[in-house]
Predict the 3D structure of the following.
Amino acid sequence: MTERIRTLDARGNWADDASTPQQRETLRVSPTNIRRFVLDRREDHSGVSGTGIVAEGVRFTDGTVALRWLTETTSTALYHDMDDLITVHGHQGSTAVAWLD
């Protein structure tokens, strides 16, 4: 069996999604696929999180996203992918994802 590095496309999906289950078990994951980001909120619709950098997060190699709020009452949440996070916290474009990596 050959070993290869899995890569993600711009949306966080596997670029090599056609690989077989046997191949997936032997694949290495490149650390460059792990990306850090912050949420930059221009307008606070809820009046809870404020504006500016309100959360920090990580998108893992499988597309899963972890988000940590920087507000007074902190919390951490996991999302299936970045699209799910934006659906919940994007506030119709009032919040931008700023990639750090």
About this structure: The radius of gyration is 16 Å. Residues 82-89 form the longest helix (8 residues). The first strand starts at residue 5 and ends at 6. The beta strands are 5-6, 28-29, 35-41, 52-59, 65-69, 76-79, 95-99.
